[in-house]
Amino acid sequence: MIELEGVPELVDPVMVAAFEGWNDAGDAASTAVAHLDKEWKGEVFAALDAEDYYDFQVNRPTVWLDGGVRRITWPTTRLSVVRVGGDKPRDLVLVRGIEPSMRWRSFCNEILGFAHELGVELVVIMGALLGDTPHTRPVPVSGVTSDPDLARTMDLEETKYEGPTGIVGILQEACTHAGVPAVSLWAAVPHYVSQPPNPKATLALLNRLEDLIDLRIPLGELAEDARAWQLGVDQLAAEDSEVAEYVQSLEEARDTAELPEASGEAIAREFERYLRRRDGGGPPGPGQTAGHATDGEGAAYLRDAPSDRTRPPKPKPSQRPTEQSAGEPEATEGPGSAENAESAESDNGSGDSGDDSGDSGTSESSDD
C-alpha cells in the first residue's frame, strides 16, 4: 500500500515522466525532467525499490566516498513534487529514472498507484528518437495518445503503432487501461549527432510541454546552450564536405515537406508563447516545493549525462542510416510525424521484459 505522508493536497496535478535508455536519444527527455526538478527545486518523496526492477549487471550501482565513508548509490526511479505558483498555480509530479530491466507491469502499476493517491489528472511521458532531421532546423516534437477523445480535445495524433515497444509505450497503455489520460511527447534527434547532451531537443520538449499544460516554464540557460550546441555541430559539419552535403539534403527535404504547414497555426502558437513570457515579466521564481523523503525510501541520484561531443559520422546522402547507437530508438519515417515517433520503438526489442510478473523483492535501504 502506498502511503504519502507529508505530501500536501495538490492543485490540478500533472505527472511528467522520462526514462533514460532506449526511449531517450541524446538524453533529451530525461534532461528535460531534470531541468524541471532543478528550476523548481523539487524534493524526492519516493524512490522505487531498485531490487525489484533493475538488472545490476546492466545498470550497475556506484560506490562513492562521503567524508571517508564508502556509500552505494543504486540505479532507480524517483518521484518528486514541485509546487508552481503564479496566476495559474499547478503542481507537477516528476518521475525520472532508468528504463526497468524486468517486471514492467508491476513497475507501471506502482507509478499509477502514486498517480492515483496524488490525484493526478494527466500523465505526460517524454521521449526522444533518432531521425532524419537536420540539426539546423527546429526540432520536430510529436504528441501522441491512445485516447481518441484526448487526441481530439488536445489536438494530438491518435497512435496506430503496432510492434515492439519501450517503457514509454507500456506506461502510456497502462494509463489508458486505468482510465488516466496520458500523452507521449517525442522529440526527433539528428541521427548523425546523437551523442548527449542535446539541449536543443530538450528545449523543444519543454516548449511543447508548456503549450500542452498551459504552464510557463523557466528555461534558464537552455536557450543559450541550444545555440551553442548548434554552433558546435555547424563547425564540425563544415569540416567535412560529405557531412555538409548530407545536412543540406536533409534541410531541403525538411523544408519541402513542411512548406504547406508554415501557416497561421504554427505562427500563432509561437506568438502566444511570446505573449505569455512577456506578460509574465520574466521567468518566475523557483516556487514553493513540496514533498519529503518517505521513511524507508532511499533516494538514488542518477549520474549526469556525458558532456563530451564527438565528430558526426559520415553518412552518404543517398543512404538512410543502417545502424544506431545502442539503447536509442531510430526513426523509420519522416521527422516529426506520429508514425515516426511510434515506429522508433520497433528498432530495438527491450519490451519483452514487460511480460514478467510483478514479484515483489525485499526492500533495500540506500546509504544515501
UniProtKB/TrEMBL annotation:
SUPFAM superfamilies per record: Cgl1923-like
InterPro entries: Proteasome_assmbl_chaperone_2, PSMG2_sf
Highest taxon listed in the record's lineage: Bacteria
Composition bias, Low complexity: 359-368
Region (Disordered): 276-368
Annotated Pfam families: PAC2
Coiled coil stretches, renumbered: none
Protein name: PAC2 family protein
Organism: Streptomyces kanamyceticus
Lineage: Bacteria, Bacillati, Actinomycetota, Actinomycetes, Kitasatosporales
